[in-house]
Write a structure and sequence with these properties.
Oligomer: heterodimer
Shape of chain B: elongated
Number of helices of chain B: 3
Number of strands of chain B: 0
Shape of chain A: globular
Structural class of chain A: mainly beta
Largest sheet of chain B: none
Strand content of chain B: under 5%
Largest interface: A-B, 86 and 51 residues
Helix content of chain B: 40-55%
Strand order of the largest sheet of chain A: 1-28-27-26
Radius of gyration of chain B: 25 Å
Strand content of chain A: 35-45%
């Protein structure tokens, strides 16, 4: 207790309060026990919850009451991408707004031309359940992994089989559930069933930073847009979302409220908030500066879990893919459902808006991907 | 993965972290949502999934009429 308070500069209210709970006398040299620390943690969490509760002066729907409702939407299936022979588990857009990479339960990775629906590369991984795949910012490299616990990077070249150039970059102690390139082809950020996230150097395969804090499987990560390139968010089966500082390895904020696993996290395009999707059949919006939930997207008729979410470029629409095969479109501000996209014949496992916001791609357990615009 | 911190280390880190969080400055929900609303208003006209395209030809995913491009 005393040592950690000293290291932190001491003197603020939180310190004064928590010191009070340990009872005064034993604080010079005694190392705090796990029980002491646990008590401090619970006390601080209660205090934070109280502070957050004070901020709820209005609901998001009240603030947005005078807004014009969204009308005249004309989103439909424009392309169907067929070629996987098993459940599609993940997809990502290339920065050229034209190509897509997808990964599947049968171990296949496919690179698509979404304009023509042609397959440009197909790679068979030595594993099943390739749960994650991501394009590098240059568009010349993809990363993937899954039940093999590894993140593997493939440079995309047209002259030879991409599988010959593969590079195993990192290994977790459990499955890899999600990955992304944070701003450069030289680094990969991964999330894993081992409850950690890790930042890897692609060239050397070294861990640059590891992120401990979740108490269960990490299911999803997303990078902050714009001026905070060192911030990312993770969502976990511990029902929490953490906001991390990539440079220090520490988390800066946590968000709670979901009643079951968080399967998807995504930064709002403003960078001020994060969206989440959960097995509790809800999506939520958490604001970083209010440090709390500001909206919840649910309906009594929606009973199934959410696997994937993304925002339209203005942040007004939240797209969410569900286990009941539907994609629901939520008005993030009026907090109601504005439309449903039907087309898949099984769970929607993955979903992403194209980089310029002209289309959304969905992947499903029905073995197909669809482009909606 | 590399060595994992011990339980006590992890808990200490968490206590330090929660102390920092406990003292952070927070804004009310109304103000946070006003900012999110303003962002949506400022970017709505470029949000093609909401406003569509000035002409269907501008949509890169319009239905395929590629026949002449094969030349």
């Amino acid at each position: 207790m005393a040592s950690s308070a000293g290291a932190h500069g001491g003197g603020d209210n939180a310190n004064a309060n928590t010191t009070g709970t340990t009872g005064g006398g034993v604080q010079q040299t005694e190392e705090p026990t796990i029980e002491d620390l646990q008590r401090d943690i619970e006390h601080l969490k209660r205090k934070i919850a109280e502070e957050r509760a004070k901020l709820c002066d209005k609901t998001t729907a009240q603030v947005s009451d005078a807004l014009e409702p969204i009308q005249g939407l004309n989103i439909k299936v424009r392309r169907s991408l067929k070629g996987h022979n098993a459940k599609v588990l993940c997809l990502d857009w290339c920065s050229d707004k034209r190509h897509l990479v997808s990964s599947s339960q049968d171990g296949k990775l496919i690179v698509w031309d979404a304009f023509t629906t042609n397959k440009e590369h197909a790679v068979t991984m030595p594993t099943t359940w390739v749960m994650a795949c991501a394009y590098g910012p240059s568009g010349n490299v993809v990363a993937c992994g899954g039940l093999d616990n590894k993140v593997t990077v493939y440079p995309l070249t047209l002259d030879e089989d991409v599988a010959t150039k593969k590079k195993t970059v990192g290994t977790h102690t459990s499955y890899m559930s999600c990955c992304l390139f944070p701003g450069s082809d030289n680094q990969v950020l991964t999330g894993s069933g081992d409850a950690t996230c890790a930042l890897w150097d692609v060239e050397s395969g070294q861990v640059l930073q590891s992120f401990h804090g979740h108490s269960a499987d990490v299911m999803s990560v997303d990078l902050a847009p714009g001026p905070n390139p060192n911030t990312f968010v993770s969502g976990s089966c511990d029902k929490m979302a953490f906001v991390w500082d990539m440079r220090t390895g520490n988390y800066v904020q946590y968000f709670e409220g979901h009643e079951s696993d968080i399967n998807a996290v995504k930064f709002h395009p403003s960078g001020d908030a994060i969206g989440t999707g959960s097995d509790d059949a809800s999506c939520r919006l958490f604001d970083l500066r209010a440090d709390r939930e500001v909206a919840k997207y649910t309906k009594e008729s929606i009973l199934f879990g959410v696997n994937a979410i993304d925002f339209s470029t203005s942040g007004r629409i939240l797209f969410a893919g569900y286990n009941d095969y539907a994609v629901n479109m939520w008005d993030t501000l009026k907090t109601h459902r504005i439309a449903m996209l039907y087309g898949h014949e099984n769970r929607v496992s993955s979903l992403k808006c194209s980089p310029d916001g002209t289309a959304i791609a969905t992947g499903s357990w029905d073995y197909s991907l669809k482009i909606w615009a | 993965m590399e060595s994992t911190p011990s339980v006590v280390q992890q808990q200490r880190m968490e206590v330090d972290q929660l102390r920092r969080e406990a003292t952070m400055k927070r804004i009310p929900v109304s103000q946070a949502v006003e900012d999110i609303k303003r962002y949506a208003m400022d970017h709505m006209m470029q949000d093609h999934l909401i406003v569509g395209f000035a002409s269907e030809k501008a949509n890169p995913f319009r239905e395929k009429t590629w026949s002449c491009e094969v030349l």
